[in-house]
Each structure stands twice: as structure tokens, then as C-alpha cells.
Write a structure and sequence with these properties.
This protein is of the alpha/beta class. The chain folds into 3 domains: 140 residues, no CATH class; 113 residues, NAD(P)-binding Rossmann-like Domain (Rossmann fold, 3-Layer(aba) Sandwich), CATH 3.40.50; 185 residues, Rossmann fold, CATH 3.40.50. Helix content is 40%, strand content 13%. It has a 7-stranded parallel beta sheet, with helices on both faces. Strands 5-4-6-7-8 form a 5-stranded parallel beta sheet. Strand 12, helix 17 and strand 13 form a beta-alpha-beta unit. Helix 4 packs across helix 5 and helix 13 packs across helix 15. It starts with a helix and ends with a helix.
């Protein structure tokens, strides 16, 4: 629609066609004009004409910025032809162009005129002179590749995913089961996903699939072996949520550590209105300063938590679940040593064979009874049955969880009856979900796909 509105400037169109005909250097078959003005009225296309050597190169650069341009022109070609015909007619009336029949073919020629040169139009004429009509219109047979987002609602309805329209023909599904995914990606070239499992049973039904982009860091829901064997590129996003997950770690801890639920209820119940004292000491709490904070997994998020913990005056120690992370500033200790020494333990590790049910009955037995456990890593790192037992029998003071073994939470989860907000607080996997973080995630995923397309433009 924007292109049609631009092309209604018939005076400018006449000047462009005049200059194009000059560049062509000989009578121009009239059917060629149908494709000239739509290109010359495209700011994206014309911005590259003088910086590249060939028409083909200009097409490639244009597709990088606006993959849908040639599709849009093809889909609106009949309306655009009418505008071109009107423009040609006006050019004849203004005596800057004329038509003659050569070998039974109507062709456009220029008339003497003082019109100033328009270099982009002249260059396009020079290019088209060297091409057959088939070569000229080849880009207009280009089919915009299909992009499918399988679970858009996992990013929230306040996040705009339509930015991906710039890269292809976009379809967004709020959510998809594996069975639904089989049909939905059958003709897709690019798939974007957060949590839907894309295993061989799903992927083998997508013969055109070139790229899977994740709205996440973890790759555990993608069959990487299948993708590698079938030349499907898989790209995740990392580092987008470091600040907010660290922030949420302290939100969980401080809510528990300072007994916020109790004191909030005390005021809201009206009991404070009847107090004889300006303060209330119903549930004692402690300072963080001087406490030992044990970190499980000293990656980007773990390091950020360590930095903040130090600002509170904590002594930081850590355990590397992979054995690969080493930090000169913080003391690395064995797992059970960390549990025995720490007043607060926070989990920032990935889920793998080494971390699955790392926190079990034996682990809780090694922790201080005054210790608090925070998990913003992955749910199955904690054995929830054993955690429920530890909380119920006061083996630890409390736990703050943003992740669970099964998400969403099931009604038979052993922790659900213990959620009293004083010893246990659970948030619904929302530690990563600040508005800024989700927007950043989408932008990173967009940039990943854009880079892949630009690297693979034919």
C-alpha cells in the first residue's frame, strides 16, 4: 500500500521513466516499464543502486533489508501496472517520451528535454539493457520464506512479535502442542520457539526447515543431533536475563529473610493499630552482612549474584557443577563444604546429569538449620519430595523457588501444602520475565534470524 501511494506521484514517475530510458539507450519494450517504477519508488532498492555493480547484487542487498519487497510488488502488480500506464501517458502528454512500434513491439523512446539526470534510474536502465526479460523479473518470482512462532504467549501479550514480519511471511501461534507443531511447521523455513519440544517426530515433517531460533538459552527441547544431520541451524539467546534473574534471587531471599509475609499480614490485619509499641518483634530476622553466601554455578548470573551479595556484606563461596568455572576473587569449595558453611545457598546451574536432584536428602542433611535455599536455575536440580521433608521437619529455615520439576505446577506437588510464604515462597518461573528482559530477548532472537538470512541470501 505504501508503494502504491508513493507511485501516485506521476510527475516524478515520468522523470524516472525518462531517465531509465536514457540509461537503457535504445527503445524500451513497454512491458519492461511495469517493473521499473515499483523498484525506483522503493527507497530500500534505490539506496543500493549506486553502491553495487550489478542488478543481482542490488537485489541481494535489498532482500537483506526488506525480504518481502518483491513479493509485495508481485502481489500488487496489476494495480502498479495501472499507475505505470498513467505515468507513461502523462510523460507523452508532457512531450518527454514517445512510443513507436518496432518489429511489431511497442517501445518507449525519449524526446529532447532539459530534465536533470536521475542517476539511480539511469543505472537501472543500463543494467536492464544487459538482461533478458526473464532475468529482470526473476526476483519477482522469489517467494518470501515462512516464519512460524510456535508459542508466542510464553513471552507475554505485551511484547510485540510482529517485528519478524520484516524477515518473512509470519505466523504466530499463542501455544502449540507437539502434535499441533507437526502441522504448523510443515511448510516453514524458519521456526521460533521457547518451550515446545522439537524432536525427530516433529522435525521430520518439516522438509523446508532451515533454522530454529530459541527465545531461550537452554537447548534441551531441541533434537540437536537431528538438526545437525539435516543441516538445520539452531540458535539460542544467552546473557539477556542476567540482571533480572539476579534481582529476583534477592527478591525471593529478602522476602523470606526479613519475614515480609508475616509483617505485611500483621499490618494489614489491623493488629498494628492496636499495638502499644511503635515496633513489633513477632518474628526475629537477621542481617545479611557477615553471612556466608554459597553459589551453585558461577556463570554470568552466579557472578552477578556474588557481586550483589558482597555489596550486602556477605562472604561468597561457590561450587562449580561443571568444574570449568574458576574465579580468582571467590573461594571455590567442594559441594558439601559449601552446604555446611553457607547461610544462604542459591542455585544458578544448568540441568544435566551432574545437577539432576543434586539437592536431595543427603544435601539437606548437610545444610545449616538456619540456612535458606534459593533456586532460579532449573527445577529438577532439587528433589521436591526431599525438600518438602526438609522444610516440614525444619532441616532448613526456608526456600524460595522460581522453578519446579514440573511446570506449570501440578496439584499433587508435595510443596504446595507448605506454601505459607514464611518458610517457602514460589514464583511461576518469572525470574527472567521483566518487560525490558523480554523485549531484549525478542530483539536478540530477531538479530539472530536476520544474520542467518543475510548469510544465506542466494
Amino acid at each position: 500500500m505504501k508503494l502504491i501511494e508513493q507511485m501516485k506521484n506521476e510527475d516524478l514517475g515520468g522523470v524516472l521513466l525518462y531517465n531509465f530510458t536514457l540509461g537503457y539507450g535504445q527503445p524500451v519494450p513497454i512491458e519492461i516499464y511495469d517493473y521499473v517504477l515499483p523498484l525506483l519508488f522503493s527507497e530500500c532498492f534505490t539506496s543500493h543502486i549506486l553502491s553495487v555493480s550489478t542488478y543481482q547484487e542490488c537485489v541481494v542487498e535489498t532482500l537483506k533489508e526488506d525480504p518481502a519487497l518483491f513479493d509485495d510488488i508481485r502481489n500488487q502488480l496489476e494495480a502498479l501496472k495501472q499507475l505505470t500506464n498513467r505515468t507513461l501517458g502523462l510523460a507523452v502528454v508532457n512531450r518527454i517520451m514517445a512510443f513507436e512500434t518496432i518489429a511489431q513491439q511497442v517501445c518507449g523512446i525519449t524526446q529532447p528535454s532539459s530534465i536533470l539526470p536521475f542517476n539511480e534510474a539511469i543505472r537501472l536502465g543500463e543494467w536492464f539493457k544487459q538482461l533478458t526479460l526473464e532475468e529482470m523479473i526473476k526476483p519477482f518470482s522469489h517467494q518470501t520464506k515462512k516464519i512460524v512462532i510456535l508459542d508466542g504467549e510464553t513471552l507475554g501479550d505485551d511484547i510485540d512479535l510482529t517485528v519478524f514480519k520484516k524477515l518473512g511471511q509470519l505466523t504466530i501461534y499463542p501455544a502449540s502442542t507437539q502434535e499441533e507443531a507437526i502441522q504448523r511447521i510443515a511448510d516453514a523455513h524458519y521456526v521460533l520457539v521457547n518451550k515446545v519440544v522439537l524432536d525427530e517426530q516433529v522435525l521430520k515433517n518439516a522438509p523446508h526447515l532451515e533454522y530454529i531460533g530459541l527465545f531461550a538459552t537452554g537447548l534441551n527441547n531441541i533434537d540437536l543431533n537431528y538438526c545437525q544431520n539435516h543441516q538445520i541451524t539452531v540458535k539460542n539467546v544467552s546473557g539477556y536475563s542476567t540482571d533480572i534473574v539476579a534481582q529476583h534471587t534477592f527478591a525471593l531471599l529478602l522476602y523470606l529473610y526479613e519475614k515480609m509475609a508475616y509483617y505485611d499480614h500483621y499490618v494489614q490485619s489491623g493488629d498494628y493499630c492496636h499495638s502499644l509499641s511503635f515496633s513489633h518483634f513477632g518474628m526475629p530476622f537477621n542481617e545479611l552482612s557477615g553471612k556466608t553466601w554459597g553459589i551453585i554455578g558461577l556463570g554470568q548470573i552466579g557472578c552477578q549474584v556474588a557481586k550483589i551479595a558482597e555489596a550486602f556484606g556477605c562472604h561468597v563461596i561457590y561450587y562449580s557443577t561443571s568444574g570449568k568455572n574458576h574465579h580468582d576473587h571467590y573461594q571455590q569449595v567442594p559441594f558439601y563444604t559449601l552446604l555446611e558453611q553457607s547461610d544462604i545457598v542459591s542455585i544458578h546451574a544448568p540441568l544435566n546429569e551432574q545437577t539432576y536432584h543434586l539437592f536431595n536428602g543427603k544435601a539437606f542433611a548437610h545444610m545449616k538449620r538456619t540456612a535458606y535455599l534459593i533456586n532460579v536455575g532449573r527445577g529438577p536440580i532439587i528433589d521436591e519430595i526431599e525438600l518438602a521433608f526438609a522444610l516440614k521437619h525444619h532441616l532448613i529455615a526456608g526456600a524460595g523457588l522460581d522453578v519446579l520439576e514440573t511446570e506449570p505446577m501440578t496439584k499433587d506437588n508435595p510443596l504446595l501444602p507448605l506454601c505459607d510464604s514464611q518458610h517457602l515462597v514460589i514464583t511461576p518461573h518469572s525470574a527472567w520475565a521483566a518487560v525490558e528482559t523480554r523485549n531484549r530477548l525478542v530483539q536478540f532472537a530477531f538479530s539472530n534470524l536476520k544474520a542467518f538470512i543475510e548469510e544465506n541470501v542466494e
